[in-house]
Specification:
There is one protein chain. With about 290 residues, the protein is α/β, with parallel strands linked by helices. The protein is about 30% helix and about 10% strand. It contains 8 helices and 6 strands, in the order βαβαααβαβαββαα. It has helices at about 30-45, 55, 80-90, 95-105, 120-130, 175-190, 210-225, 250-260; strands at about 15-20, 45-50, 110-115, 155-160, 195, 200. α1 (about 30-45) packs parallel to α7 (about 210-225). The chain starts with 15 loop residues before the first strand and ends in a 35-residue tail after the last helix. It holds the Pfam family Flavodoxin_2. Its EC number is 1.10.5.1. Its cofactor is Zn(2+); FAD.
Length: about 290
């Protein structure tokens, strides 16, 4: 397992997987899930890099320290603008640059974590805030299916404290598809990633050992064909008027076509219709969305 050396030239043809991992304990179920992924993917011949964020003491807060040298505007610090210029001029802090190199080399990124407050732990959110800088990961011209990382895949693998029924549309926590939309669409797909269906481990802390073992076995089985899976469905940019004059809104002809559909286009683009079932956790058939022209 490669921990921190993305420069390894072991094999130019070898595919690379990056696991961004956030759990404090090496005895945790999340750690076991990470170890299963490393073992199975390496068996398949992949080079696996693990960014163990707690072990690395990765800094979560996005600050002036992320920029080496002078600021473009010292009177009003704007993190996005300053990191864009720093990325262009090779002046980002060393820890950010090291992680960006890993992202560049990876064909797939797996985010392994326990669900905290319907999202990722703060240290992982900090990784996203600091590593996925403007210019490196996105621009106004390069976003969503036009995005910089459109040839890469990403996925969430996480544990929950709640049961699956609690995250159902009728459950007390509400629909898990709604909870996942900001992370999967608003962060990862915004940067262009093709998003594989999440691997969700429901309430392992309250499951007997045999159930946790079955969860690990199921994860190992899925990993055997993971990179051949079809990604989740998101609304392609071609369906929108990509101009400030047009407000980046769905084209009128697309809205008209959607009027005859029983469900909205996606979890986020529902247009007041029922949400397409499991849009953020299962692959949808191609015929379920308007054609991009």
């Amino acid at each position: 397992m490669v921990q921190t050396d993305p420069e390894d030239t072991h094999s130019m043809a070898q595919k690379t997987v990056l696991i961004v991992y956030a759990h404090q304990s090496p005895c945790s179920f999340n750690s076991a899930l990470k170890d299963v992924a490393v073992e199975e993917l390496e068996e398949q011949g992949y080079r696996v890099i693990v960014s163990d964020l707690y072990a690395m003491d990765f800094r979560a807060n996005a600050t002036r320290e992320d920029i080496i040298g002078e600021l473009k505007n010292p009177h009003l610090f704007q993190y996005g603008e300053e990191t864009l210029h720093a990325w262009m001029e090779h002046r980002l802090s060393d820890d950010i640059v090291a992680e960006q190199r890993k992202v560049e080399e990876a064909e797939l990124i797996i985010f392994q974590f326990p669900l905290y407050w319907f999202s990722v732990p703060a240290i992982m959110k900090g990784w996203m805030d600091r590593v996925l800088t403007q210019g490196f990961a996105f621009s106004l011209e390069k976003m969503y299916n036009y995005g910089i990382f459109k040839d890469k895949k990403a996925m969430l693998s996480f544990t929950t404290g709640a049961t699956q029924t609690m995250f159902s549309p009728e459950g007390i926590n509400g629909d898990i598809n709604v909870a996942l939309w900001p992370l999967q669409n608003g962060t990862l797909h915004f940067c262009g990633f093709q998003i594989l269906a999440p691997q969700i481990f429901w309430s392992p802390a309250f499951c007997p050992d045999m159930v946790r073992t079955a969860m690990l076995d199921g994860w190992r089985a899925r990993l055997k064909g993971l990179l051949k899976e079809k990604p989740l469905t998101f609304a392609p940019c071609e369906l929108f008027d990509l101009s400030f004059q047009g407000g980046f809104l769905l084209r009128p002809d697309v809205k008209k076509e959607l009027n005859s559909q029983p469900y909205g286009l996606t979890t986020g683009h529902h247009l007041g219709k029922p949400l397409p079932p499991d849009n953020q956790i299962k692959t949808q058939p191609d015929e379920s969305r308007p054609k991009a022209e």
